[in-house]
Amino acid sequence: MSPPSLIQSTAPVSHPAPIALSYELFPPRNEAAATALWNTIRELESTNPDYVAVTYGANGSNRDTAVDLLDRLLTETSLRPLAHLTCVGNTADELAGTISTLLERGVRGILALRGDLPGNAPAEPRPGALNYAQDLIELIRRVEQRRSALLCAGKVAIGVAAYPARHPESPSEEHDIEVLLAKQRSGADFAITQVFFHPGHYSNLVARARRAGVTIPIIPGLMPLTSLRRVLRLGDMTGVAPEPALLDALGRAGDAAESRRIGVAATVDLARAALDAGAPGIHLYTFNEHAAALDVLDKLQLLRPAAVPPAARGLVTA
């Protein structure tokens, strides 16, 4: 008689998973920006985030600087990078080469995105070009499968974008959910939302996604709402009007310190509403600035595990 399986004999999991924490950074454009960015990186590293996303320009416009930043994060910090990758304007062969490069450098997490369509996009796409994030996900999985021995039979974590409000190019919110479900079926492991301004947007997105059969974690993406100019710009980009009370308060702020206090409070309210709705983590769009992000984290009082030294993780063998 065979012994009972662990699944049959183990008691149900009763302890909730800790809240995940992540940040987003973008490659620096010049030497001064690089110095400021590395100050931010060291400050954020002290919070022991689960990963740090590194953006990647449309059509690979900043590919080299993005890869350089990923290299330094892997070799000079304890941070785990999540590499953005966009597919618009790139062929499958080109993207397969980029994916291989990322894996060879030690990246084990990729955020698979379609990317913004260029304003001068040709009427006919390039032969062999990928046009949707779903295609990119499937390509990542194919490249991964060919390299499974090199990855020690491991698995690349693939993230995707989710939209709390209708995507500007989508016919409906229902269509957005169908796209998210298709990404899951193609191999996505988790989703990070675009910026939102209204507490109900996240909980409504999750409810609609779960009804449709989406089971992957959906992590709220939050931007510290400390700049009136940036809030207005993001409202235009997403097609979602920010809260009038927030715009009024930021407009009346007497100085940068008051604007930061107002914006941090509004961001914390959004984060708490998302956590109350069952969010598995918090993803902060930092714009390469750490002060407001750390203010948000401090007020949320999220419990963070102690950082594990590289040697204890088996990363140093000497």
Question: How are the strands of the biggest sheet laid out side by side?
Answer: 7-6-5-4-3-2-1-9-8
Terminus-to-terminus distance: 47 Å
**Helix segment tally:** 11
Indicate the radius of gyration in whole angstroms: 20 Å
What proportion of the residues is helical, as a percent range? 40-55%
Secondary-structure element order, N to C: HEHEHEHEHEHEHEEHHHEH
Largest sheet: 9 strands, parallel
**Unreliable residue stretches:** 1-7, 313-318
Q: What is the total domain count?
A: 1
Average pLDDT rating: 88
Q: Which structural class do the helices and strands define?
A: alpha/beta
Short description:
The protein is an alpha/beta fold and 318 residues long. It has one domain (17-118, 126-311): TIM Barrel. 44% of the residues lie in helices and 13% in strands.
Could you walk me through the main structural features you see in this protein, from its secondary elements to its overall organization?
This protein is an alpha/beta fold and 318 residues long. The chain has a single domain, classed as TIM Barrel (Alpha-Beta Barrel), CATH 3.20.20. 44% of the residues lie in helices and 13% in strands. It contains eleven helices and nine strands. It has helices spanning 6-9, 31-45, 63-76, 92-105, 133-146, 173-186, 199-212, 228-238, 244-252, 256-276, 291-300, and strands spanning 20-25, 51-54, 81-86, 109-113, 157-162, 190-193, 218-219, 221-222, 281-285. A nine-stranded parallel beta sheet has the order 7-6-5-4-3-2-1-9-8, with helices on one face. Helix 7 (199-212) packs parallel to helix 10. The longest helix has 21 residues, at 256-276.
